[in-house]
Amino acid sequence: MALSSENELFNKYELGKLLGRGAFANVYHARDMASGQSVAIKVIHKSRLNNDANFMASVKREISIMSRLRHPHIVKLFEVLATRTKIYFILEFVKGGELFAKVAKGRFGESRSRKYFQQLISAVSYCHSRGIYHRDLKPENLLVDEIGDLKVSDFGLSALTDQVRADGLLHTLCGTPAYVAPEIIAKRGYDGAKIDVWSCGIILFVLTAGYLPFNDPNPMNMYRKIYKGEFRCPKWMSPGLKRFLSRLLDTNPDTRITIDEIKRDPWFRKSYKEIEVGEIEDFGVVEEKKSVDLNAFDIISFSSGLDLSGLFDDKYKALEDVERLMVEDSPEIIIEKVEEAVKTEGGGLKLRRKKDCGVEIEGHNGNFIMGVEVYRLTDRLVVVEVKRKVGDVNVFADLWKYKIRPVIFLQHPVLQVAGD
């Protein structure tokens, strides 16, 4: 698959004008040729991934995160496509543009600011409940659609719960200077939820005041003000909003207001309607309800017929080193069958259970090691991934392809996953 003509992508999208240009990606307006729907397409050159390991990790994380988010105030990722040289994010097109451009024309009244802030907190709360922390919330990353509703975008700096270190905190220094929390400036570990709350406080201040609370042409002076919490609310702000901002911009993360407390604040609660889970559209992306489920990055890879892992990781590129198959069964039953097959084979094989649904099989005297992991794709289908980790490829092939594999898949049709 590739560009079928100068302006057509994968015979699915007609590319339009350039909407924005960044250091690593360009964003274009496009039209879905089947439905006529407008979309935004973010184009990333693979050569830039190969030259920057951090950016490579960021792209993988952004795909994984955005694929599992379905909320009316978060920009939707519809699909990911790829050619030999480029990766394409097919995104919801938000016609109204950046919130930054609107507030740059003049500050908002409290009722309008409250509406946007309520929608922002709804989206952020949803992310946090799924172990996702944005870490770069600012008006430039907030879009407004044609009916005036807010959409959170750009999850490139986001973090997942599994990035938390043993101390229970995140440590990567990131974010936009004027919006970063004091604990990041102090280079201490930080709680992802608490720094998102701080950034939300900065955003609310900007919307209602029309300028940044901590601003100075000298970056070091600005950081000092942030660290000490030196800001003043303008006189036109209501007492309720001033109190609310003082809790959002509390320099002590331990006493800073939480999302749950935000939702109970009198200023915030005015005209607020909680978005129920049932009201969120389901676009069919399988969420990680169980540890054995595939994450959204993997689901995109398999469901699109293109294994995107090859775009990032060549470790298991040889056919002899890895095999992925789809089969109708439960992960638990598949692992039981693997264990039975290993016991039947004997020959000094050792089997170790791994976390979630996986096992590691070691040959006599450690002459080879292979891993078998099972992921849920849908309610009926699972993906079985087998990797040769150590040892002779012929030993691996003999054990897996001719002894264990037939026992597992004897009663079910098997589909080879694209890319392997």
Describe the structure.
With 420 residues, the protein is of the alpha+beta class. It has helices at residues 46-50, 53-67, 99-103, 110-129, 182-185, 192-209, 219-228, 239-248, 259-264, 266-269, 296-303, 309-312, 331-345, 393-409, and strands spanning 3-5, 8-9, 13-21, 25-32, 38-45, 77-82, 86-92, 132-133, 142-144, 150-152, 159-160, 322-328, 350-354, 358-362, 368-376, 381-391, 415-416. It has three domains: 3-92, Phosphorylase Kinase, domain 1 (2-Layer Sandwich); 99-277, Orthogonal Bundle (Transferase(Phosphotransferase), domain 1), CATH 1.10.510.10; 314-416, TATA-Binding Protein (2-Layer Sandwich). Helices cover 34% and strands 22% of the residues. A seven-stranded antiparallel beta sheet has the order 1-2-3-4-5-7-6. A hairpin with a 3-residue loop joins strand 2 (8-9) and strand 3. It starts with a strand and ends with a strand. Its EC number is 2.7.11.1. Belongs to the protein kinase superfamily. CAMK Ser/Thr protein kinase family. SNF1 subfamily. It is an enzyme of class 2 (transferase).
What attributes does this structure have?
single chain, 420 residues, alpha+beta, Transferase(Phosphotransferase), domain 1, 3 domains, 34% helix, non-specific serine/threonine protein kinase, Ser/Thr_kinase_AS, ATP-binding, kinase, Prot_kinase_dom
